[in-house]
## 1
Amino acid sequence: MGEITKKSLVLTFGTVGSKEVSLTITKPADGLTGAAIAAAMDQIVSTNAYGDGDVVNQKLGAKYVTQQVNTIILA
C-alpha cells in the first residue's frame, strides 16, 4: 500500500464558561470559503446547537488539519 492523506476541518468555539471547545469535521466539502465557514459557525452559535454543559457563545477560529499516513511494509 501507499500513502493516504486525510483532511479534517476543526472549528473552535468559546463557551459561556470561558472554555474552548472544538468540533472536528472529518470529511469537509472541497472549496469551502472562509466566509462560508464563518457563516456556519455563526449559525451554530446563534442556535445553541453545540456545547457539552456550557453552550458555545462565540467563534474563535477554524483550521484544516492534514494527516499523511505512510504504510510500512514489514519483511
## 2
Amino acid sequence: MLSSATGWWRKHYSKLPPAVQMIGLQLWMPLFFITAFCLCYVVAFHAPKVHDVPVAVVNTPAASVVTQKIEAGAPDTFAFSYFADRSAAVESVRDGDNAAALVISADGQGQPELFVAGAHQFQASSIVKTSFQQIFATGEGVKITDIAPLPKSDSFGQGAMYMMMSWCIAGYMVAMFIGMMGAPLGHWTRVSILAGGAIVLAVVSNVIVGPIVGVYPAEHFLQMTGLAMLWIFAIGLFVNGISYFFGRFITGPALLMFVFVSIPASGAAFPAWMVPSFFKHLQPFVVGHGITEMIKRILYGVGEPYWQGFLLMGAYAVLGVLTMLVGKRWRESKEVDRILSGQSTMMIAAQRAMMAHGMENRATVLRRHGIDPETGKPLHQATGTASADTDDAEAYTELELTAGGDPLVNGGRSLGLGEIDREHDILQADRTGQE
C-alpha cells in the first residue's frame, strides 16, 4: 500500500518542471524551521515566569524564620538551600549553582546581606535583587553585594550568549556542508576540513568580538580563541558523524540540537528557572550551556568549573567519532543496495532533470543569438563542419547529462554530485569485476 502510494507520487511528481521539483524537495526546510522556532523559542520565551529560584541561605535560626515567611507568602517562588557558612554559600553563587546567597545574622539583628553575580546571569541577578529589596522593604532594607559585576563592555551580559551562538552555528555549518557535499571524502579529509574550519572561524570570530568590537579585553584573546577552536571542532565532529545517517536532511537535526533547543536550554538568554521545565532538564546536556559557562569562567571568573565544560565537549567529540566510523559503513551499504537494485532518489532524479533542462535552455539561448550550441561558433560558420571542437562539445554535453547534478547543491568531483559521484564509482567497480 505504502510503496504503491509512493510510486504514484514519484511518477506524478517527476512530471513537474525540474525547477519546481528541486524547490519542492527543499520546502521541508522552511516548514521545519518555523515549527522548531515556535516550539522552542516562542514556547520558551513568550511568557518567562519566575519559579523555584535557587537561593543559598547561611543556616541560622533567624534565617530559617525569614525563609519560612517567604515560602508562606510566595510559595514556589524560591528554592532555598542551606549552607553552614558564608563562604560556601557565596561560592555556590560564583559557580552558578544558586542565583543569590542570603546572609542573616544568628540573632536577626543588623542588616541582611544578599550576594549576587551579575556577570553570571544578568536577568537572574536583577530579578533576585528586586525581589529581596521588596521583601526587606521595611527596616534597614537589604545590602546587595555583586561579587562579579558585568563590565561596561558587556553591560547586559549578552556577549557570552552571542559568542556561544556563533560558535555553535560555525561548528554545525562546516560539518553540514561536508555531509551534504563530501560523500566521497574519507575520514581524514573530513576531519582535516573540520579542524581547518575550526581554526579559521575561531580566529575570525574572536578578532571581531575582541579587538574590533571590544566585548572582552585583549588579555583573554588566546584563551577565548583556543576555546572556540575546541568547541567548533567538537560540534563539527558530532554533526559530521550523524550526517551519514541523515544525509541531505542533516540541517534539521543540527539546527534543532545546536540552535533551537540549545539556546533556550542554555540559560544564556533567560535563567533555567524562567523557562518551561523541559528546557531546564536538558540544560546539563546542551552545548550552549557548556560553552556559555566556560566563556563566563574565562572572562568573569563565574560559572561552572572548567572540567564540566570539557567533559561535555569530549562527550560530543567522542560520539561524533563513533558515529562517523559506524555511519560511513552503514551509509555505503545502503548506497550499494540502492544502486545495484537500480533505484534512485527523488532528489537525484530531479537534479538530472534539472541538468537536462538546463542544457536544453542553454542550446535555445545560444541559437537565439546565432551561435551553434555544439561548436560555440556562429551558425553560418558551423554549418557542414565537423571538428575536434564538435567532439569535445558533444563529450562535454554528455558528461553534464550523465553527471546529473548541480555542484552548488551537493558537490563532488568534476560536475557531479556527491551521491552521483559515489554511484559512478560503485558502478565502475561492479563493471570492472564483471569484466
## 3
Amino acid sequence: MFRRLILEEWQNLLLILGFLLIACAFFAIVVKTVRMKRKDREYMANLPLEDEEKRRSAESGETTSSNTSDEQSR
C-alpha cells in the first residue's frame, strides 16, 4: 500500500524538519523539568487540580448555577 505513495525530495525534508522540531521541543521540556529547583517542584506538586468551590459543591451534592450551566453546555 505504501509503495504507491511517492514522496518528492522536498516533502521528505518537511517530514524530517517536523520531526526535529517536535523532538527539540520535547527535549527542551525534559531539560527544563530536570533542572527545576526544589522550591518550584514543591510548589507545582502542591497545586490543586480543581477549584476549591467546585470540590466543595461536589462533596456536598449541591449544584450551583455555574455548575448547571457547565453541564448544559456539554
